[in-house]
């Protein structure tokens, strides 16, 4: 692994070694922000020296999460989603080292990486290289945000099965390529891994949908209606959001529908309650 590529201190996205360091393009976008202290960069080597470490622990019994402690940048955790043909890492984190890789190997390793949106790209190419240049799935609508070259697989359309029983769904929330991962779940009732495409809020009976979370820009009602309709035909009872503990455990499809209705009502849109 090359631990010296620059990582944005604010969003945690790793860029190519020769990238322009004047400003992080992800943070300059209206959905994110440049840190109040100005643009700053760090590397995996420097994060290690500052005491950051990877952590691999169960999010739910049988489902493993990957995070960084202390929390760094946006603070998301990724998920190691099991199934035939190997595990998928859904979303990514900025930090990776030999100990973290060994911990993931102990729970089955990785066969692929899939990203929900650019804010959670982290050090995705470095993670890919650590597991033998495994494919990194990014929706083609977000191709311009890919920060460095690697085994990037651009997929198109509304759905793409990337490994048996793991299917990406392009919901288009937050970013045009904003995607969730559907899989059978731990109980066979179905589950969605959503990052913050459908973000599980502090009241974990609900999710919400935003164009920008830090800048509080709402998502367009038509985009939300399309996204909910895309997943409505899929069986799912649980939603795993993008941070530790952000899980809608049971009855998740009804909760997503209700969350969309509540959102649309508050922004004055008439989506109609779905049956």
TrEMBL record:
Domain Metallo-beta-lactamase: 75-243
Organism: Asanoa ishikariensis
InterPro entries, A to Z: Metallo-B-lactamas, RibonucZ/Hydroxyglut_hydro
UniProt xrefs under Pfam families: Lactamase_B (PF00753)
Domain of life: Bacteria
Signal peptide: none
Protein name as annotated: Metallo-beta-lactamase domain-containing protein
SUPFAM superfamilies found in the cross-reference section: Metallo-hydrolase/oxidoreductase
């Amino acid at each position: 692994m090359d631990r010296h590529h620059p990582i944005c201190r604010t969003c945690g996205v790793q860029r190519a070694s020769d990238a322009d360091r004047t400003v992080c393009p992800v943070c300059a976008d209206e959905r994110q922000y440049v840190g109040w202290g100005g643009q700053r960069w760090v590397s995996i080597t420097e994060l290690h020296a500052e005491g950051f470490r990877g952590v691999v622990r169960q999010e739910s019994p049988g489902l493993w999460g990957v995070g960084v402690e202390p929390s760094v940048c946006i603070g998301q955790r990724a998920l190691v989603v099991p199934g035939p043909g190997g595990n998928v890492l859904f979303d990514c984190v900025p930090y990776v080292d030999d100990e973290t890789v060994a911990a993931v190997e102990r729970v089955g390793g990785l066969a692929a990486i899939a990203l929900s949106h650019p804010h959670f790209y982290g050090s995705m190419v470095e993670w890919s290289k650590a597991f033998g240049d495994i494919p990194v799935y990014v929706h083609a609508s977000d191709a311009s945000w890919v920060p460095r070259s690697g085994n990037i697989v651009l997929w198109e359309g509304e759905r793409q099965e990337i490994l048996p029983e793991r299917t990406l769904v392009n919901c288009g929330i937050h970013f045009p390529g904003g995607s969730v991962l559907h899989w059978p779940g731990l109980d066979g009732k179905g589950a969605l891994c959503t990052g913050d495409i459908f973000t599980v809020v502090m009241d974990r009976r609900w999710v919400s949908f935003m164009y920008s979370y830090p800048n509080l820009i709402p998502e367009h009602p038509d985009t939300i209606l399309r996204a909910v309709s895309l997943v409505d035909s899929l069986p799912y009872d649980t939603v795993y959001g993008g941070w530790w503990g952000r899980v809608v455990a049971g009855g998740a499809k009804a909760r997503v529908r209700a969350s969309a209705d509540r959102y649309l009502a508050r922004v004055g849109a008439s989506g109609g309650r779905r049956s």
